Predict the structure.
Amino acid sequence: MDRKKFLKAGALAGAATLISTPNAFAQNLVDNDIDKLVDANGNYILQPLPYTENFLEPYMDAETMHLHYTFHHGGAVKGANTDLQMIKKAMDDNNFQTADYWTKKLSYHFSSHVLHSVFWTNLTNKKNDPQGELLRRIEKNFGSYDKLKALIAATSKNVDGNGWGILAYQPFSDSLVVLQCENHEKLTQWGCIPLLVIDVWEHAYYLKYRNKRTDFVDAVFNVINWDNAAQRLNNAIKLVK
Ligand code: MN3
């Protein structure tokens, strides 16, 4: 099967799986269109969580989920809209004195919006493992699934300050890469499309895990939705071809 036919078949199989599945999470992912981050006017919008706030208990507690989604992700969306308005104002006023400040803030806030949106859909209470094309590429680029897990875990646990561990598709090298992101926007490689992200900001774990970021990262591996990462990989490959 050539590449195009393979991708088409994969997309059709994926659609059929989502339509016929009794898995409410997968159905919600389609219905809520969670990766729709902007409205028709280009303003940023916060999609509903694809599950209830206690869905990932005991690994992620409902109170943390509530605060994290509502105020941290929600706050980033509000911030990004403010940044956008301020850049527009600078353009309208033809006064660019503070435009670089708002451009920088937009990079921070919008990157937060993107990563949080990916993060929620990367999680599920039904444990699964990588399969198909995702597994094939993991084995090609990292040796094995276990090696990849060890690399993402170490990368996430060791972020300096607040940030993320990220598995991404790098279209320029047609490969999977692991990134260690600081804040929301630093230490990326241009072009990378995030497939799986682990939030290691203190707000993601401090209520339940206190200072034990390592325990939190280990716990996250119980709730990773690799099917979602696989779906994202298929979309990413299609996007850049
Ligand atoms: Mn966060």
Q: What stands out?
A: The first helix runs from residue 3 to 20. The first strand starts at residue 163 and ends at 170.
